Amino acid sequence: EDYLRGWRDSQLREHMTEPGLVYISQPTELGTLYSLEQLEALSSVCRSFGVGLYVDGARMGYGLASEANDVSLADLSRLTDAFTIGGTKCGMLFGEALVIPDAAHAGSMRTLIKAHGALLAKGWLLGVQFLTMFRDGLYTSITRTANERAARLSRAFADAGFDMLIASPTNQIFPVLPVGLARELIEEFGVYEWEPVGDSRLCVRVVVSWATTDEDEAALIAWIASHALR
């Protein structure tokens, strides 16, 4: 709201880019979640200033399945101008579902899809994946399992004496390790380097997915226990 008001009231508006859209991710890149209260506040501000609200839901399944989540697809439909329901990060072969709740806002979307070369000749192949995933709750059951695995790994890191960069209620966790141990973990398990923490520690990003197995989890927990700081 402060940013939008600052733009609106500026004497230099003709030299500035006009804000047109607020773009957020659910879950965020840190695995955290916007609450319903926060989403309602964002939506209210966007509508009062006439800008759109878009939610990137590439990892939506992990958000919907989180015990900390209080936002439903119905809430997103009510509060946003557009959002995506993630496919590829949640077990599908390809594609995302773009949802535009108000058909009046879709405009020439189909024409734009064609113009940008993204019209699928066999679009039903994308649709059948979502039909299957939303039948019998599969979409949230496999992502819930990933969240539960991530929670167990987070506890294992904490029990071994490692700090966490941030508390995440979804499938991404961010343990902080001495640089040498972090490099070893990256090499052995293919986790991602995230950011340095001070001069001697490194935060890594551990992403648990729908495809993570019991064996994968057990191997990482064993590694954590064997390198415990306490």
Radius of gyration computed on alpha carbons: 21 Å
Largest sheet: 5 strands, antiparallel
Helix content: 40-55%
Oligomer: single chain
Q: Helix/strand/pairing class, anyone?
A: alpha+beta
Mean pLDDT rating: 94
Secondary-structure element string? HEHEHHEEHHHEEEHEEH
First-to-last CA distance? 46 Å
Shape from CA axes?
A: globular
> How many strands appear in the DSSP assignment?
9
How large is the count of helical segments?
9
DSSP strand content: 15-25%
Poorly predicted segments:
none
How would you characterize this protein structure?
- This protein is α+β, with helices and mostly antiparallel strands.
- Helices cover 42% and strands 17% of the residues.
- It has helices spanning 2-8, 36-49, 60-64, 73-79, 109-115, 124-134, 138-159, 179-189, 214-226; strands at 21-25, 52-56, 82-85, 97-99, 163-164, 172-173, 175-178, 192-197, 201-207.
- The strands form two sheets. Strands 5, 6, 7, 8 and 9 form a five-stranded antiparallel sheet that branches.
- Strand 1 (21-25), helix 2 (36-49) and strand 2 form a beta-alpha-beta unit.
- The mean pLDDT is 94.
